[in-house]
């Protein structure tokens, strides 16, 4: 009887020792795995991680239209300086500024126009008014169709209280310069390239 009790006690102690060793092995494996993961993360260039996270253009999910184009994609705007232009056909100040912006844009040579585009965000009250103003007053700029919810979203995001408003933004929608309207208004004939060069440095 005593011998059996001793045998059971030994088995019990062996079982405890076995479980203890298994526990140590599991902890060791988890520690090693965590260390490897941390090393991998630190070896990935920070710029690469940021680029991957930001590769999607801020207009990727926004419907865009453009005169003469059936299908418009935000991919066409990647890597370009974007001028977000908030205006409306009913706005007298807009009617005075739009020709200046158009003249500025058309004075840029073809090579420079490859690096910059205008996206019009209309504040018109009806769809026909938006289309009429676009056809009469604007070049083949990109625009967001009337009624799209992104219009109000951009108005709020960029704090547009008064129109016309012009914002220079990058692929992420970050404002690089919100004084570009003054730059355009101050551009004399032949000065468009100077404004472009200034913005390019900020981009």
Q: Main traits of this protein?
A:
single chain; 203 residues; alpha/beta; 54% helix; 13% strand; transmembrane; Nucleoredoxin-like
Characterization of the model:
The protein is α/β, with parallel strands linked by helices and 203 residues long. Helices cover 54% and strands 13% of the residues. It contains 8 helices and 6 strands; from the N terminus they run H-H-E-E-H-H-E-H-E-H-E-E-H-H. The chain has helices at 2-43, 46-54, 92-107, 110-113, 127-137, 149-157, 180-186, 192-202; strands spanning 65-66, 81-87, 116-122, 142-143, 165-169, 175-177. Strands 1-4-3-2-5-6 form a 6-stranded mixed beta sheet, with helices on both faces. The termini are far apart.
Q: What's the pLDDT, averaged over the residues? A: 82
How many helical stretches?
8
| Largest sheet report | 6 strands, mixed
Principal-axis shape equals elongated
Residue stretches low in confidence (pLDDT < 50, at least 5 long) are 39-53
The helix-strand sequence is HHEEHHEHEHEEHH
Based on the structure, what is the oligomeric state of the protein chains? single chain
Q: Compute the gyration radius: what is it?
A: 31 Å
Fraction of residues in helices? 40-55%
The total strand number stands at 6
- Taken as a percent bin, the fraction of beta residues is 5-15%
Ends: how far apart?
88 Å
Strand order of the largest sheet: 1-4-3-2-5-6
Short description:
By secondary structure, the chain is α/β, with parallel strands linked by helices. The protein contains 8 helices and 6 strands.
């Amino acid at each position: 009887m005593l011998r059996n009790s001793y045998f059971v006690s030994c088995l019990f102690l062996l079982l405890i020792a076995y479980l203890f060793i298994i526990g140590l092995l599991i902890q060791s494996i988890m520690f090693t795995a965590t260390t490897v993961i941390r090393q991998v993360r630190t070896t990935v260039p920070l710029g690469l991680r940021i680029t991957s996270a930001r590769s999607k253009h801020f207009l990727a999910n926004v419907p865009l239209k453009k005169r003469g184009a059936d299908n418009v994609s935000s991919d066409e705007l990647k890597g370009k300086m974007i001028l977000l232009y908030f205006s409306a056909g009913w706005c007298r100040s807009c009617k005075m500024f739009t020709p200046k912006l158009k003249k500025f844009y058309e004075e840029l040579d073809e090579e420079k126009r490859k690096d910059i585009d205008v996206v019009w965000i209309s504040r018109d009250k009806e769809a026909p008014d938006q289309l009429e103003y676009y056809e009469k007053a604007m070049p083949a700029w990109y625009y967001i169709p009337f009624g799209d919810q992104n219009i109000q979203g951009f108005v709020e995001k960029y704090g547009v209280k008064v129109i016309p408003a012009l914002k220079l933004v990058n692929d992420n929608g970050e404002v690089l310069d919100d004084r570009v309207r003054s730059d355009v208004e101050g551009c004399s004939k032949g000065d468009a390239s100077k404004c472009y060069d200034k913005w390019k440095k900020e981009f």
